[in-house]
Each structure stands twice: as structure tokens, then as C-alpha cells.
Amino acid sequence: MNELELRRVRKTFGRTVAVAGIDLAVQRAEFVGLLGPSGCGKTTTLRAVAGFERPDSGEVMIKGRNVTHLPPHRRDIGIVFQSYALFPHMTVFQNVAYGLRVRGVPKNEIARRVADALELVHLGELEHRYPRQLSGGQQQRVALARAVVIQPTVLLLDEPLSNLDAKLRQEMRSELRRLQRRLEIATIFVTHDQEEALSMADRIVVMNEGRVEQIGTAEEIYNRPRTRFVAGFIGMCNFLPGQVVSVAQDHFRFRAGELEVAVALDGGLPAPGTQGTLSVRPEVIRILGADESPPAAVNVVDGKVREITYLGAFRHYRVELSSGHELIVYQQGSGTPPIQEEGRVRVAWEAGAGSFQLEGAAA
Amino acid sequence: MREPRRYWVPGLLISPALLLLLFAFAAPLGILIVYSFYESRPGGVMIPAFTLSHYLRFLGDPFYLYVLWRTVLLGLWVTAWCIVLGYPLAYVLARIRSGYIRGILVTLLLVPLMTSVVVRSYGWMILLANNGLVNKALLALGVVQSSVQLLFNTTGVVIALVAILLPYMILTLMPVIQNIDPSLEEASQSLGASPWRVFRDVVIPLSLPGVGAGSILVFVLTIAAYATPRLVGGSRLLVIPIFVYDQTMALLNWPFASATSFILLALVLGLMALQGRLVEGGSTWDRGA
């Protein structure tokens, strides 16, 4: 049974459609990231799960129970807010104990469970401090302890790391992940930070304009983006709009202006004449050496280097193809570059390295 | 090179207000305190002296102390009603999402303050009289069987004062409640608290400083009120301001009136200190590391 299930959940504010009917199921111990630009409906979705927003239609199920019309305090959820929302008039201990006190848990059990929760987030010695006396990272841990101490079925994290500085954020990412694995709580976290989503989530839900663009593992989302929006939102991507010219057994030929290349796909191949976009990640493209002969099943295109940007670990090349298209190519930054700016090059990528998005697929 | 700081600039900026306070407030107060130690003779004659007799006379007389107690009691009643009636209103106003609608409602709240206190008090006298609108309505609705005495007693004065002082309470409370992060209430809810529990555990404790500030304001304004108790309270409700007025204007005993004023002032300052202590004691969390 799913710990959490959303069925066609839809929410509008006035004329603005915040969430346009989304479906999502989260299993026990699963860590799901809602990723998207601001205003994509991810926060509204989270708030609908929490009960702070009532959906116009659709259902929210927690452990098979329909909670769509239940108020937040009867839903069995834990939330970590972006601002942490620690009670300023309560000590760390009182903050973490609050959910247990409300539930009428006996005093000695509260003491034990709060101590365990604070131990879990390494804050045992700070229980008598007030939130104001804590650093941002410590406040975040208290908020986390407060949310998990009640052993909720579903844990919701609203941009949990966005208020921390870069270094602390890295640390908290892995710590949060470890904690979630250990507690095996079904968890949803909202983020606009793709790196955060890629590094933490078991599954990522990419949202845009109130709709789900794609649900999948980090690798699926990155390597096989289903829509142009997903390809563009996560990582850098070269887009070549055009159409399918001919279809062979395991690949098809694709024409974008003067450029014609081979595309191999895992799934079904599109029919000839299909309009769409070929998306190629900059790091799957190689710059060939002067007399290097490429293997078969590789697309080789001539071009001219317009710009080289050195970034330490990588060099970014802006290559203008003879067809007029411009490609961004990432290569290792070590060693001397095989080519100078304004030099002529051949760039190559495997037929199976790109991804193909149909025209008209939600973008 | 850094420009030397010009310390006289802030001084210059606050000097008009400072001068006004000095001459219109501090100086008269100083004169009054000197008078309160003078000897008085019948017929409004004051003889410069240093005597504590007026203070001792007031504090040693059960009647005067009773008047003082009545005044404080009136202040407590009005303050209590202002909290009870004002808090829910302040909460609702603070939680209205549209700033435009809130602006309109706050303006409406201020309308009663735009009428003169005398006119307003006469208005209340008409409404609260034995055959006034309030009694007629109560009779017509069957709430009471015969008309209730609402005028020329404490009830009437409390009603009239609460009506005028309520905006002070609401306007002091509203921004304090507005400043409570709504996600604190959501956090409380998500941890299992019912709406009432959220209110009790989060909203009330965090708005206590506002309640304290509003209470001081309302209490001080009540025990200093003269026109409303005189008109609505009639001759039977004696409070300190009326007492001081009579001593000053009718009996011309300025030293005794001055001493009485200072006893009231001392009491108010004492209560404020106590209240400050209570609010501060309840909010160690507010003082930071």
C-alpha cells in the first residue's frame, strides 16, 4: 500500500491554476523530490498534502485513508518549514516535545523520545536553549527533530536547505538522506535546486505550470528527459528542432535544417515526418582529434570553435556547426586543449546519447 | 579621512519636541510637586512650606483610599473588557489578507475617536437612560423584564469608556499579532494541535507583549478620564480625576489636589513597573543569546 497517494489533485487560486490535477504515489521509505521553477505548483502540492490548502478536486490518501477533507492536525504528517517555524517562546526541548504533548504522551516517554530525536540530529546538549540562541543549521536540525519525533506516516520538507550557506547545505543533504533512510519515512521535499533534487531523491517529480512533466529517478530525468522543459530545466542542453526523415531498425535519421544525424532510442521509434526536438547534453559530445577516426554509429559534424571558457575541471566550447547551429560542448579541463578559438573541429556524439522530445508534448 | 561625527545634529532634531515636553509637561509637573508640599489655608491661600500633611491626610483617610480603589477598579474593569472584546477583533484584522480591506476597517475603528468626548458622553446618556434605546431594545427582546439601571453608575461608565478605548487596545494588539509568523500556527497544527490549541499555545503567548502594552494604555487613559465619569457616572461615581477637579476648582485646595495627583501618578508608575516585570519575565526567549 502506498503511504501517500495523490489522485488528480487540482487547486486554483482565483483564475490562476496552481496545480492542474496531479497524480503521485509515494511508498514507505521513499524520498521524492518535487522540483520545478517558482510558481510551478510544487509548494501548493505540498500544502495540499499537509492540509493547509484544500484541493478543488481530487483526493489525498494517506495509508489508504482519504484525508482530503481532514484538517492538518488529524493527518499524521510531519513538516519542516522553509523558515523552520520553531516556536520562539519554547526551548529546544519544548519545541521537540510539543507534538508529543499535544498527543497526550506520558511525561517520561516524552523525555525519552525527545532525547532520542535530539540525539538523532546531534543536538542533545542544546535542549535548554531558545531558538534565537541557535545557528541556522542548528535550528534546521531542531525543526527536523520536531517533525520526526511524532513518527509521522509522511514527512514533508519545504525547501529545507535553502536558508543554509553553501557548505552547510552540502553537509545537511547527506545527513538528511541518512536520517530519512534510517527512519524509513515516506518523504516529499520541495526544491527549486536541481542539484539538490538529483543528489537526494529516489524519484524526482519535475513540475511546470501546475503539471507533472516527468517522474523518474535522477538518471532517468537527466538522461532521458521526456519533454523539452525537463531537458532544459535540469542541466545544460543543446536543442535541435527538426523532423524525422527515415526510420531504420534500431534508429532513425533526424534532420534539423542542414544537419542530418542518427538517433537511437530504447523505446518505440517515431514515424517519418514527426516533428520534434533532439536534445544533446554538452558532456556527451566529444571534440575529435585532427586525425582521429570515429567509430561507426557516431554522428560526426564539422564546425568552428567560437569561444573556449576554462573552468578548472572543465572547458566549455561554443562550436558553430557548418549547418549554422551552435552547440555547447563540455570537455575535461586537464591537459592542453586540442584546439584554439576560431579553429575548425569535428564534434561527435553517439546515436544513443541524445534524447528526443515530440513536438507538442507538454513543454 | 573620516568626517568627525556631528553630535549636535540629533540634538537639534529632537529639540522642538524636547522643548515642548519641558515647558508643557515637565515644568508644570515640577510646580505641582512643589505645591503638594505647601501648607493650605481656607479660601485658596497657599503658604510655601515643606509638609507631608496632604499626603498623610489622603493615605490616612478610608474614604479617600476608597475613591482611589474605585478608580483603580474602574481601570481594571475597562482594561479587562477591552482585552476580551478587542483581542478577537485584533486577531481577525491582523489575519485579513487584503491590506486594502484592513485599511478600511481600521479607519472605521478610528471613527469614534473623531467625536468630542463631551458629545459622545451625552450620546451615551441618551442611549443608556432608563427609557433609552438600550433599555427599550432589551425590554423588546425580552432579555429583561424591567429597565436596568445603566446610567449614573459604574456599569454605564465602563460601557462608555470601553467603547472609546477599544480602538487603542485593538490598534496596539493588531501589529503584534500580524508579526506572528503564520507558519508557526501551521507548524503547531501539523504537530497535531486543534485550532483552539494552536491559539492557546502559539498565538496567545506570542501576543502577550501586545496585550501588556494595550492594557497599560487603556488603564492609564481610564483612570485619568474626567468627562465620561462625570457625565455618564453622575454625582454618585467619584473617581480621582473628579475628586482632584473638585478640590482644585471648588475648594481651591491646590496643595491637597496636587498631593492626590501624585499619589495616583505613583500608583500608575508602580503598576507599569509591575506589568513590565511580568511581561519580561514571561518572555526570556525574546532577549536573545
What is the radius of gyration of chain A? Answer: 25 Å
- Give me the strand/helix succession of chain B: HEEHHHHHHHHHHH
Percent range for β-strand residues of chain B: under 5%
**Share of helical residues of chain A:** 10-25%
> The biggest beta sheet of chain B, please?
2 strands, antiparallel
Give the overall average pLDDT of chain A.
Answer: 90
Low-confidence stretches of chain B: none
Overall spatial form of chain A: elongated
**Most extensive interface, chain pair and sizes:** A-B, 31 and 24 residues
In the predicted model, the low-confidence regions of chain A spanning at least 5 consecutive residues are none
Q: Calculate Rg of chain B over CA atoms.
A: 24 Å
Structural class of chain B: mainly alpha
Strand content of chain A: 35-45%
Order of strands, widest sheet of chain B? 1-2
N-to-C terminal Cα separation of chain B, in Å? Answer: 36 Å
The beta-strand count of chain A equals: 20
Run of helices and strands of chain A: EEEHEEEHHHEHEHEEHHEEEEEEEEEE
Q: Provide a count of the helices of chain B.
A: 12
Describe the model:
The complex is a heterodimer of chains A (363) and B (289). Chain A is of the alpha+beta class. Chain A has 8 helices and 20 strands. In chain A, the strands form 4 sheets. Chain A has a 6-stranded mixed sheet with strand order 6-7-8-3-9-10, with helices on both faces. In chain A, strands 13-12-11-14-20 form a 5-stranded antiparallel sheet. Chain A has a 5-stranded antiparallel sheet with strand order 15-19-16-17-18, with no helix packed on it. In chain A, helix 2 (92-102) crosses helix 3. The longest helix of chain A is centred in the middle third of the chain and has 18 residues, at 166-183. The model of chain A has no long low-confidence stretch (mean pLDDT 90). With 289 residues, chain B is mainly α. Helix content of chain B is 73%, strand content 2%. Chain B has helices at 8-35, 53-60, 62-95, 99-110, 117-128, 133-140, 154-178, 182-190, 195-223, 227-233, 240-250, 254-281; strands spanning 39-41, 45-47. In chain B, a hairpin with a 3-residue loop joins strand 1 and strand 2 (45-47). The model of chain B has no long low-confidence stretch (mean pLDDT 88). The chains are: A alpha+beta (363), B mainly alpha (289). Chains A and B meet through strand 6 and helix 2 of A and helix 8 and helix 9 of B.
